[in-house]
Amino acid sequence: MTSSLDPGLASRLKRTGPDSLGLLPAVVQQHDTGEVLMLGWMDEEALQRTLTTGRATYWSRSRQEYWVKGDTSGHVQHVREVRLDCDGDTLLLRVDQVGAACHTGDHTCFDADLLPLGTGPVTP
Amino acid sequence: MTSSLDPGLASRLKRTGPDSLGLLPAVVQQHDTGEVLMLGWMDEEALQRTLTTGRATYWSRSRQEYWVKGDTSGHVQHVREVRLDCDGDTLLLRVDQVGAACHTGDHTCFDADLLPLGTGPVTP
Prior knowledge:
The structure is a homodimer.
Chain A: H1 7-12, E1 24-30, E2 36-42, H2 44-53, E3 57-60, E4 65-68, E5 77-84, E6 91-97, E7 114-115
Parallel strand pairs in A: 1-6
Antiparallel strand pairs in A: 1-2, 3-4, 5-6
């Protein structure tokens, strides 16, 4: 596919691969401020563990194992609410995040990289 | 994989399939209230169109075509900000949503389906 997206930006995009098959994306939001903290991935078992323990639990695509958020870092997510979207293909977790949500130490995984708007030819 | 997830809930989950390969999930948030409205999918071209036109544009996995949110419904998303996450695999759009975000007429795609917490055996 041809695209006029800036090549520097395009090279930074990591496209969804086969390791996401069979999983559901889970959007994670701080329950009181509304900040979007991160996006994780779940299978049925991760969802079941999350619902029953109240601790956000994901499937790590890179490590191919379950991970309870915060077990290593201490940056636990206490789950307040879990919602399924209209199509049944996306989850929304409203959590109380302890410490930084991002493994980089940033408060959220979206803090660092604001993309430029309006950088291409504008359709009249 | 065995899971003790409620079978009724499990049957409603639509797992990520091959039609998501090569795309990036885009979390869409109302810029002022912080509400998570929906999750869409983008390829490079959809991202480029979104950045340059300021109108949220996605790749429809079901129709296999680009769709400018609101072109049919009038429920346009004016884009205020686009962010890429720490891993480069997820986008966050902060938008000003006109009308309902969800095709069902709900305000967001997450309004209708709150899952029960604490419904299984609790680990002591």
